[in-house]
Design a protein that fits this description.
13 helices, Cytochrome Bc1 Complex, Chain D, domain 2, elongated, mainly alpha
Length: about 270
């Protein structure tokens, strides 16, 4: 049977040349570099977004030194910590800004403590995590301005969505399995807002589609007003409800009645 042969052309010879793979690799690298240069954010774009490459690089360095042992070298998560891809800058600002992260120890719930990083370092960490994937952003001043918010409406929304865990006045409360809802007195409006949009630990997420930004501001207005509200009936007893009030009633009220009964018994002899 006769074998068919294909005549060699110039292109075929070049493809079989020993340096052809190197040429193809160099061309691919050149195209990749050109596309990156064309599509990378310019300094003007960085200035417009408020986040610079230097800030992101600093945040990555801080992350690798302080967070990667639990959350993975690329924030992909591990058996000791969840993934941070997609959590957004707001989650980092809340967790790091309140001192909950880096965690001092592992338990049912990470507690608030003195922050390990200053404001600039916290912003850099938030910028790095935000660069990994889209997520909730840190609220701006307009989102936190509750000056003209309806306090009464905020109290109504709070009692419907939050009071069952955080207490009627934001004093906190116990949950299951050793967890608890922290007290909200002394919490900044920014951290309140970030907690609502990120849902830290046992808290549900209240996105803008679930709870509009206006409602969030009204809740913050109610809590800030409640924190400075005087107690017209006397001591507020921590505003934790019937537990403290009942304790006072038993210890002092019933104790006084017992003392009075003993005194009357002694006088009757």
């Amino acid at each position: 049977m006769r074998r068919l042969t294909v005549p060699w052309t110039g292109l075929t010879r070049r493809r079989r040349h020993r340096f052809a793979p190197l040429v193809v690799l160099a061309a691919a690298l050149g195209v990749t570099g050109g596309l990156y240069t064309a599509l990378a954010p310019s300094p003007h774009a960085e200035a417009a977004s408020g986040v610079s490459t230097a800030s992101i690089d600093q945040g990555r360095g801080l992350f690798l030194r302080n967070c990667s042992s639990c959350h993975g070298l690329n924030a992909e998560g591990s058996s000791d910590g969840p993934t941070l891809i997609g959590v957004g800058a707001a989650a980092v600002d809340f967790q790091v800004g309140t001192g909950r992260m880096p965690a001092a120890n592992v338990g049912p719930q990470i507690v608030k403590k003195r922050p390990s990083f200053d404001a600039q370092q916290t912003a850099a960490l938030a910028a790095y995590v935000a660069s990994l994937a889209p997520g909730p952003a840190i609220p701006d001043k307009s989102q936190l301005d509750y000056t003209n918010s309806d306090i009464a409406k905020g109290g109504e929304i709070y009692r419907t969505n939050c009071a069952m865990c955080h207490n009627f006045a934001g004093s906190g409360g116990a949950l299951t399995l050793g967890k608890f809802a922290p007290a909200l007195r002394g919490t900044s409006p920014r951290h309140m807002y970030e907690a609502m949009i990120t849902g830290p630990q046992s808290m549900p997420v209240f996105s803008d589609s679930t709870m509009p930004a206006k409602d969030k501001r009204e809740i913050i207005a109610f809590l800030r007003n409640s924190a400075k509200e005087p107690g017209p009936g006397g001591l507020s007893l921590g505003k934790i409800g019937p537990v403290s009030e009942g304790g006072v009633g038993w210890l002092f009220g019933l104790g006084a009645l017992i003392a009075c009964a003993v005194w009357l018994g002694a006088k009757a002899r």
